[in-house]
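User: Could you check the structure of this?
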Amino acid sequence: MGDPEHIRTAGHDTRDVPARLPVLFIVFMTVFVPLVLVGLWGLMATLWPALSGPATPFAEEPVSVPDAPPLQASPEADLTALKRRMEQRLQGVGWIDRETGRVYLPIDRAMQLLVEHGLSERGTRANDDSVTPSNVNTSAGPGAGQEAGNE
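Assistant: Sure, the predicted structure tokens are below.
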């Protein structure tokens, strides 16, 4: 290692990087980087042809701005109507798909019919006259279990 006596007499640590190297690096980069940039600019200006067409997509004619979006005139009334339709769908009876025999009916009544009639085999269709929107009594309470047309 270095001699401690030598460090005390020099006044500083002599093992540091010489100050000349960072200064030369800064001077080199100050000269080299601008030269490279000027060279690239000259290369691009002379060797590559200018692109035809607009420089930016904004140079074309402006696109027309659409009118304001249609807003709800009365959001409260629309929400009330939506809730009313949803409630009618939940409590009502009707066809979902006549061809496959699918109907919608209240959940309580559907569970009651499931207990009474059971599940059909997978892949087979229930009897066409078993449950239809017209013969399901939705007002029947628990335990009534009778279809309107078969009482």
